[in-house]
Amino acid sequence: MVLLDGKKTSNAIKDEIASQVSSLVASGEKKPHLAAVIVGNDGASLTYVASKVKACERVGFESTLVKLPETISEKELLHTILQLNTNPKIDGYIVQLPLPKHIDEQNILLAIDPKKDVDGFHPVNVGRMALDLPTFLPATPYGIMELLERYDVETSGKNVLVIGRSHIVGRPMSILMSQKRKSGNATVTIAHSHTKQLSTLTKTADIIVAALGIPEFLTGDMVKNDVTIIDVGITRVADNTKPKGYYITGDVHFDSVSKKASYITPVPGGVGPMTIAMLLKNTLLARNRHAN
To answer: Does some domain include residue 81?
Structure first.
C-alpha cells in the first residue's frame, strides 16, 4: 500500500512555485498577488484562510485578507467584489464559502471576474474546463489530478467511481478524469444520495473518489483488492477520550480500507494540502496571463 502523501507533494509544488517567483523578482517583475475575502467569524473558514495567507508568504506571493462583518449586505459585498475585479495589483482572489444565509452565493460567484477566479467556480471557467480549454481548474479536483499524476497512478481505461456530485469536487472530478489527459481517460460513474446498491459499484471500482461528507462511510468490505482511494472528506468527530475532545477523519474508514488498497490518501495530510497548493498554482497562472 502506497500512501498518497498530499503534504509532501504540496510542499514540493510550493518549492517549485517559490523558485519561479524568485526568478520573477530577480528580473524586476511583479510578484503574484492573491486576495481572500472572508465574511463573518466562522472558525473553520478563518483557519483555512489563515493557512492560505501563510502559504502565500512561503512562496513569496503578496496577499491581502479582506475581513467583512457577518451583517454585511449582499449589495455591499458585491461592491467589494467590483473593487477586487478592477484592482490591477490583485491577480486572483477567492471568496471563502459558506457565506451568511442572507447572501446569495451564486450572485457573488457570478460577479467575480473569471480572469481572477482562481477557485475555478465561475460558470465561464467551469464551461472552459468541460470543453477542455485552458482555464483555472477547481483547486481540490486539480490537486487530486496532480497527486495521481505525480504518483504515476494508472487511470487510463480504469473504472472510476466518484461518490458525491457537488459543483466543487464531484462533478468537476468526473469531467477531468474522463478527459484525454495523463491522469484521465477513465470510465467514470457518479454516485449520490439516490444511487441504489452503491456497494455493487464500490466493489467493482478501480479508483474511488469519496466526497460525500459522511465520516468513515466507505469501509473495507465495500472495496476490492488493489483499489485506489482518494478521500476528500474531513470531519471533526466528537470523542471525549481524545485530548482535544474530537478526532479528524475522512469519508473512508482508513484502517479497514487501507488493508486492501494499492494507493490511498490519508486524512488529514492528503487532499487538503493539495487544494491550497493548486490555489497558489492558479494564482501564478493568473499573474502570468495578466503580464502577457
So the answer is: yes
